[in-house]
Specification:
Elements (H helix, E strand, L loop, with lengths): L10 H8 L11 H4 L8 H8 L8 E9 L4 E5 L3 E6 L2 H11 L11 E10 L1 H7 L1 H6 L14 E11 L9 E2 L4 H9 L2 H12 L5
Parallel strand pairs: 3-5, 3-6
Antiparallel strand pairs: 1-2, 1-4, 2-3, 4-5
Helix pairs in contact: 1-3
Protein backbone atom coordinates (compact mmCIF):
# COMPACT_ATOMS: atom_id res chain seq x y z
CA UNK A 1 0.00 0.00 0.00
CA UNK A 2 2.84 2.38 0.88
CA UNK A 3 4.31 1.78 -2.55
CA UNK A 4 1.69 4.13 -4.01
CA UNK A 5 3.53 6.95 -2.22
CA UNK A 6 6.41 6.43 -4.65
CA UNK A 7 4.16 7.55 -7.48
CA UNK A 8 4.07 11.05 -8.92
CA UNK A 9 0.73 12.85 -9.10
CA UNK A 10 0.49 14.39 -12.55
CA UNK A 11 -1.93 12.55 -14.86
CA UNK A 12 -5.07 14.62 -14.38
CA UNK A 13 -3.34 17.99 -14.58
CA UNK A 14 -1.28 17.15 -17.65
CA UNK A 15 -4.04 15.31 -19.51
CA UNK A 16 -6.43 18.25 -19.11
CA UNK A 17 -3.69 20.54 -20.34
CA UNK A 18 -2.94 18.30 -23.34
CA UNK A 19 -6.64 18.24 -24.20
CA UNK A 20 -6.82 22.03 -24.10
CA UNK A 21 -9.45 21.95 -21.38
CA UNK A 22 -10.41 25.43 -20.10
CA UNK A 23 -8.95 26.35 -16.70
CA UNK A 24 -12.44 27.15 -15.41
CA UNK A 25 -13.45 23.53 -15.96
CA UNK A 26 -11.02 22.30 -13.34
CA UNK A 27 -12.49 23.77 -10.19
CA UNK A 28 -13.83 20.72 -8.35
CA UNK A 29 -12.28 17.89 -6.37
CA UNK A 30 -10.11 19.27 -3.57
CA UNK A 31 -7.20 16.85 -3.83
CA UNK A 32 -6.62 17.02 -7.54
CA UNK A 33 -7.81 20.41 -8.70
CA UNK A 34 -5.45 22.57 -6.67
CA UNK A 35 -2.55 21.93 -9.04
CA UNK A 36 -4.36 23.49 -11.97
CA UNK A 37 -6.70 26.02 -10.33
CA UNK A 38 -7.78 29.37 -11.71
CA UNK A 39 -4.31 30.80 -11.09
CA UNK A 40 -2.94 28.81 -14.03
CA UNK A 41 -2.40 30.92 -17.11
CA UNK A 42 -2.61 29.53 -20.63
CA UNK A 43 1.15 29.70 -20.82
CA UNK A 44 1.68 27.68 -17.64
CA UNK A 45 -0.86 25.12 -18.86
CA UNK A 46 1.07 24.49 -22.05
CA UNK A 47 4.29 24.34 -20.06
CA UNK A 48 2.74 21.59 -17.93
CA UNK A 49 1.81 19.64 -21.04
CA UNK A 50 5.34 20.01 -22.36
CA UNK A 51 6.95 19.04 -19.06
CA UNK A 52 7.52 15.52 -20.26
CA UNK A 53 9.31 16.65 -23.39
CA UNK A 54 11.72 18.59 -21.18
CA UNK A 55 12.81 15.48 -19.31
CA UNK A 56 10.58 15.56 -16.22
CA UNK A 57 10.44 11.99 -14.99
CA UNK A 58 7.35 10.45 -13.38
CA UNK A 59 7.35 7.49 -11.02
CA UNK A 60 4.39 5.18 -11.61
CA UNK A 61 3.16 1.67 -10.79
CA UNK A 62 2.34 -0.97 -13.41
CA UNK A 63 -1.04 -2.48 -12.58
CA UNK A 64 -1.87 -4.48 -15.69
CA UNK A 65 -0.19 -5.46 -18.97
CA UNK A 66 -1.30 -6.55 -22.44
CA UNK A 67 1.70 -7.67 -24.47
CA UNK A 68 -0.25 -8.37 -27.65
CA UNK A 69 -1.46 -4.76 -27.78
CA UNK A 70 1.77 -3.27 -26.44
CA UNK A 71 -0.16 -1.57 -23.65
CA UNK A 72 0.05 -1.39 -19.87
CA UNK A 73 -2.12 0.25 -17.23
CA UNK A 74 -0.02 2.72 -15.24
CA UNK A 75 -1.00 4.28 -11.91
CA UNK A 76 0.01 7.59 -10.41
CA UNK A 77 -1.10 8.58 -6.90
CA UNK A 78 -4.67 9.24 -7.97
CA UNK A 79 -5.52 7.69 -11.33
CA UNK A 80 -5.06 4.81 -13.79
CA UNK A 81 -4.11 5.54 -17.39
CA UNK A 82 -3.62 3.31 -20.41
CA UNK A 83 -0.08 3.55 -21.76
CA UNK A 84 1.44 2.43 -25.06
CA UNK A 85 4.90 0.83 -24.91
CA UNK A 86 6.62 1.26 -28.28
CA UNK A 87 8.85 -1.39 -29.80
CA UNK A 88 12.13 0.34 -28.97
CA UNK A 89 11.22 0.41 -25.26
CA UNK A 90 10.24 -3.28 -25.33
CA UNK A 91 13.54 -4.05 -27.10
CA UNK A 92 15.48 -2.14 -24.44
CA UNK A 93 13.70 -4.07 -21.66
CA UNK A 94 14.59 -7.34 -23.35
CA UNK A 95 18.21 -6.35 -23.83
CA UNK A 96 18.75 -4.82 -20.39
CA UNK A 97 16.45 -7.02 -18.29
CA UNK A 98 15.79 -10.11 -20.36
CA UNK A 99 12.05 -9.36 -20.48
CA UNK A 100 10.52 -11.26 -23.39
CA UNK A 101 7.03 -9.83 -22.80
CA UNK A 102 5.53 -6.79 -21.11
CA UNK A 103 3.93 -9.15 -18.60
CA UNK A 104 7.14 -9.03 -16.58
CA UNK A 105 6.43 -5.38 -15.80
CA UNK A 106 3.28 -6.14 -13.83
CA UNK A 107 3.61 -4.97 -10.23
CA UNK A 108 6.77 -2.96 -10.87
CA UNK A 109 7.59 0.61 -9.91
CA UNK A 110 8.84 2.41 -13.02
CA UNK A 111 10.25 5.81 -13.87
CA UNK A 112 8.82 7.26 -17.07
CA UNK A 113 11.35 9.86 -18.19
CA UNK A 114 9.98 10.76 -21.62
CA UNK A 115 6.33 10.64 -22.59
CA UNK A 116 3.36 12.43 -24.11
CA UNK A 117 -0.35 11.82 -24.58
CA UNK A 118 -1.39 10.42 -27.95
CA UNK A 119 -4.24 8.74 -29.80
CA UNK A 120 -3.84 5.07 -30.61
CA UNK A 121 -3.60 5.99 -34.29
CA UNK A 122 -0.57 8.16 -33.57
CA UNK A 123 0.96 5.47 -31.35
CA UNK A 124 0.65 2.81 -34.04
CA UNK A 125 1.81 5.13 -36.82
CA UNK A 126 4.81 6.32 -34.84
CA UNK A 127 5.86 2.86 -33.79
CA UNK A 128 7.25 1.35 -36.97
CA UNK A 129 7.23 -2.26 -35.83
CA UNK A 130 3.61 -2.04 -34.70
CA UNK A 131 2.40 -0.72 -38.01
CA UNK A 132 4.35 -3.39 -39.86
CA UNK A 133 3.13 -6.32 -37.77
CA UNK A 134 -0.46 -5.25 -37.09
CA UNK A 135 -2.98 -6.11 -39.79
CA UNK A 136 -5.41 -3.58 -38.38
CA UNK A 137 -5.57 -1.25 -35.41
CA UNK A 138 -7.29 -2.63 -32.29
CA UNK A 139 -10.94 -1.77 -31.83
CA UNK A 140 -11.14 1.32 -29.64
CA UNK A 141 -14.87 1.93 -29.94
CA UNK A 142 -16.01 0.03 -26.90
CA UNK A 143 -14.41 0.66 -23.53
CA UNK A 144 -10.93 1.31 -24.84
CA UNK A 145 -9.13 4.57 -24.21
CA UNK A 146 -9.10 7.33 -26.83
CA UNK A 147 -5.91 8.79 -25.38
CA UNK A 148 -2.83 6.83 -24.35
CA UNK A 149 0.30 7.79 -22.49
CA UNK A 150 3.05 7.15 -25.06
CA UNK A 151 6.05 5.96 -23.03
CA UNK A 152 9.21 6.89 -24.91
CA UNK A 153 11.67 6.04 -22.14
CA UNK A 154 11.18 3.84 -19.09
CA UNK A 155 13.41 2.63 -16.27
CA UNK A 156 12.54 0.06 -13.62
CA UNK A 157 12.86 1.36 -10.08
CA UNK A 158 11.60 -1.71 -8.23
CA UNK A 159 11.10 -5.06 -9.91
CA UNK A 160 8.51 -7.35 -8.34
CA UNK A 161 5.10 -8.76 -9.14
CA UNK A 162 2.95 -7.49 -6.31
CA UNK A 163 -0.70 -6.75 -7.02
CA UNK A 164 -1.41 -3.04 -7.53
CA UNK A 165 -4.74 -1.71 -6.32
CA UNK A 166 -6.81 -0.16 -9.09
CA UNK A 167 -7.58 3.54 -9.01
CA UNK A 168 -10.20 5.64 -10.78
CA UNK A 169 -9.29 5.78 -14.45
CA UNK A 170 -8.39 9.31 -15.46
CA UNK A 171 -10.81 9.24 -18.42
CA UNK A 172 -13.80 9.03 -16.08
CA UNK A 173 -12.92 12.24 -14.25
CA UNK A 174 -15.81 14.62 -15.13
CA UNK A 175 -13.76 17.34 -16.85
CA UNK A 176 -11.75 14.81 -18.85
CA UNK A 177 -14.84 12.84 -19.88
CA UNK A 178 -16.65 16.04 -20.89
CA UNK A 179 -13.69 17.24 -22.94
CA UNK A 180 -13.25 13.89 -24.70
CA UNK A 181 -16.97 13.72 -25.49
CA UNK A 182 -16.81 17.17 -27.08
CA UNK A 183 -13.96 16.31 -29.46
CA UNK A 184 -14.17 14.31 -32.67
CA UNK A 185 -11.23 12.03 -33.47
CA UNK A 186 -9.73 14.66 -35.78
CA UNK A 187 -10.21 17.43 -33.21
CA UNK A 188 -8.69 15.26 -30.48
CA UNK A 189 -5.62 14.59 -32.61
CA UNK A 190 -5.28 18.30 -33.33
CA UNK A 191 -5.60 19.34 -29.68
CA UNK A 192 -3.00 16.82 -28.52
CA UNK A 193 -0.65 17.89 -31.30
CA UNK A 194 -0.97 21.64 -30.67
CA UNK A 195 -0.92 21.56 -26.87
CA UNK A 196 2.10 19.26 -26.65
CA UNK A 197 4.08 20.51 -29.62
CA UNK A 198 3.87 17.16 -31.44
CA UNK A 199 4.73 16.88 -35.16
CA UNK A 200 1.91 16.32 -37.66
CA UNK A 201 1.10 12.69 -38.47
Amino acid sequence: MARRNFATEFLLRELLSALGAPVAASKTNNDTADSFSESLSEESESQAALGAANGQSRVMLVRRTNSSRQTVTLVDRQFDVEAFIPSHVSAALQQERGYKTLGRLRGSVVRVSKYHFATLTRCLTTDQQSTETSVSAPNVNRRSARVYLWVDALAIVEDNELAIQSRQDVYSYPEVAERLDSLSDAELEKQLMINQGLPPL
